[in-house]
Amino acid sequence: MTIVAVIPAFNEEVHIYDVIKKAKHYVDEIIVVDDCSDDATAFIAQSLGVRLVKHESSMGRSEALRSGFKAARELKPKIIVTLYANGYHNPKDIPKLVEPIYWLRSDVVSGNNLYNDPDVLSFLGMDEHLEESSPCNNKAPADIANMSMGFTAFSSSTFDSLKFHENDTKVELSLLKDAKSAGFNVDILPVSRLCNHDNDTFQKHRIGVVIPAYNEDKLIKTTVNGIPEYIDNIYVINDCSTDNTAEVLELIENPRLQIITHEVNQGVGAAILHGYQAALKENMDIVVVMGGDNQMNPLQLPNLMMPIIEGKADYTKGNRLLSEEFRVGMSKWRSFGNGLLTMITKISSGYWHIMDPQNGYTAISREALSNMDLHNLYTYYGYCNDRKYGK
User: Fold this and answer.
1) Which sequence spans correspond to the domains of the chain?
2) In the sheet that 79-82 helps form, which strands lie side by side, from edge to edge?
3) pTM of the model
4) CA triplet 272, 335, 41: central angle to 5 degrees?
């Protein structure tokens, strides 16, 4: 069965990478409709090898969806799934939406990941769905609530009934109405959502993010702009880049951004060291390290920081080997090499519980950082495996 995902996007450079990466696990093709974004949305989508439809002028979500369906239908899919590039829709739930269509129980299945709107469900004759279904149990503005209806699977039999006559936030509901009016079976299922942690928890701590950057002019702006508001300071260390990284950094308007420039390339370890020193000087309680290539999802920041905030750890590290989802884009040889280096590091360090030591997405407490011998930190890529670094 061919399943095509249609993702309308406008200035979604912060989340588009993660949405595409996850969606690839569950669909056969992905079509991104870039509605004349003026950021790196189209560039990121193209770099991931998906089909890209570009609007020369912004036409709104309705026309973006229409363009996506037109391109998708040329592939003759059995199912088209719509989802948005802003992180509200969790691609992991695509199988949940597709299954009722596969077993001919429904023609259209829409996921509701915020809360059920009584007016919407009543109109569709689905009052039995009125129970609270949101895993986050939080209300949202009407615009976001309507967008939650945009995570929908349509069977091929329904394609001709969709009119796309509404725009903006109304288009999602209008497509369900079109299918319902044409006599198709429309269903709504509760789906998951990437819940926001309580930002008040993080705002009680001073948190800094260190970003080593070498020749990252394409993605460094996207990376910086994706840092959540609860982060106090962002330290970008330009490690003597030979491209336009310096120029791009100077144009970023973010009061939290501090740029540290290396006149001579010193290596990623040295860049992190100088970021750590700047964070310590400004009394950061937690310091996170992220790459400048936008491959470290900022939505995962709470997962790294909460063990430190709760006193369960002083140092946390991401683990790409934990799930196939986190290894998207990693070749078999690279995956094998990471596994081998993990075992070698376990043997040499004696830390048998660690995994994926090459992963640079980390967080550390001020207390642990203050007690480290930073001057003996390995300055190049081996810093991840340096035994001194782990002590």
Assistant:
1) 3-190, 199-318+360-390
2) 51-54, 29-34, 3-9, 79-82, 151-155, 108-112, 186-190
3) 0.53
4) 65
Question: Helix or strand or coil: residue 236?
Answer: strand
pLDDT digits (tens, 9 = 90+) for 292-310: 988 788 878 888 898 899 8
Report helix, strand or coil for 82. Answer: strand
In the structure, how many helices (H) and strands (E) does the chain have?
15, 13
Q: What is the pLDDT of residues 104-162, one digit of tens each?
A: 999 999 987 544 445 455 545 554 444 443 334 434 334 434 445 689 999 999 999 99
Q: State how far the Cα of 288 lies from the Cα of 274, in Å rounded to an integer.
A: 13
Determine how many CB atoms are found less than 10 A away from the CB of residue 118: 11
What is the architecture of the domain spanning 3-190?
Alpha-Beta Complex (3.90)
Give the integer Cα–Cα distance in Å for 228 and 107. Answer: 38
Bridge partners of residue 287, in order along the sequence = 208, 364
CATH topology of domain 199-318+360-390: Spore Coat Polysaccharide Biosynthesis Protein SpsA; Chain A (3.90.550)
Q: Where are the alpha helices (DSSP H) in the chain?
A: 16-23, 41-47, 61-73, 94-102, 118-123, 142-148, 171-181, 199-203, 220-225, 245-251, 268-281, 301-309, 332-349, 366-370, 387-390
Instruction: Measure the CA–CA gap between 278 and 107, rounded to whole angstroms.
Output: 57
